[in-house]
Amino acid sequence: MCQVLRVSRSGYYKWKTKKISSQAYRKEQVVKRISYHFKDNSGRYGALKITAKLRLEGLTISERTVGKYMRELKLRACVSRKFRVTTTDSNHDHPIAPNLLNQNFKVSQPNKVWVADITYIPCKGQKLYLASIMDLCTREIVGWRLDNHMTTELVMGAFEAAYTTKMPKEGLIHHSDRGTQYTSKEYRAKLKACGMIASMSRRGNCYDNACIESFHSILKKELIYCSPKFKSQQEAYTELYRYIEFFYNRKRIHSSLGYLSPVQFELQFYKKAS
């Protein structure tokens, strides 16, 4: 009976001995799973994502109930702080590409649209900058680089990492803001050599590149602001590598991907395609 109902023998005898109600026993089991998922994801999941994980385990439960149990357990997901450093210098006379993306963030296939951006990473005694490239279909961070400057070399490094990993076919749309790094002669030449089509946001409109902006916001909420300030560039790189490659790309579920991680979503896409 325990095997069929997926209940541990010890749990059954504990219930039988204490004669607790089925409702109280169910809550006890649900609370254990909530605590597990919260800790397993380093306190980064709130009620919405934990509810999704519980439903994948076969539990019928509402987000409201999960939120209530989390408050009883004093479990609260990471909360971000408002802090912004300007990383876009659009005051230049470089050529500007048209806004081909035009806030159309729904892409049907991987390696059709990439979005790119730079963000500031706090570090003790120095300033660090992270350049990231995201596949708009899978939400995977396909390339990234961290350094103590935000020159064209930084974004070129992120691009090389992405291109080497994915080797996309010609015709991919590469969308970014109007920063000097992305409008530079070197970067434009690289896009052309790889058969990519440049697209750029309108001046001062962050919504035109909302998905990659959102990723940087999530990264700061779930990693940067929940940890002590990095003591060195090497420490920052190590922690960012763990977060991006192991957690965000391979483990963190996304509601827009049907509560799959980016890597899981891509694998499922190619499995269905074959």
Provide a brief overview of the structure:
By secondary structure, the protein is an alpha/beta fold. The chain has 11 helices and 5 strands. It has 2 domains: 2-72; 113-273, Nucleotidyltransferase, domain 5 (2-Layer Sandwich).
Quick tags:
274 residues, elongated, Integrase catalytic region, single chain, Integrase_cat-core, alpha/beta, nucleic acid binding, 5 strands, RNaseH_sf, Nucleotidyltransferase, domain 5
The major beta sheet can be summarized as:
5 strands, mixed
What is Rg?
22 Å
Straight-line distance between termini: 40 Å
CATH superfamily of the largest domain: Ribonuclease H-like superfamily/Ribonuclease H
CATH architecture group name of the largest domain: 2-Layer Sandwich
Number of H- or I-type helical stretches: 11
- DSSP strand content: 5-15%
Query: Which stretches are low in confidence, meaning pLDDT under 50 for 5 or more residues running?
Result: none
Helix content: 40-55%
SS content category: alpha/beta
Which shape, going by the Cα principal axes? Answer: elongated
Class of the largest domain, according to the CATH hierarchy?
A: Alpha Beta
- In spatial order, strands of the major sheet run 3-2-1-4-5
Order of helices and strands: HHHHHEEEHEHHEHHH
Q: What is the fold-level CATH name, i.e. the topology of the largest domain? A: Nucleotidyltransferase, domain 5
Total domain modules: 2
Mean pLDDT: 89
- The strand count comes to 5
Oligomer: single chain
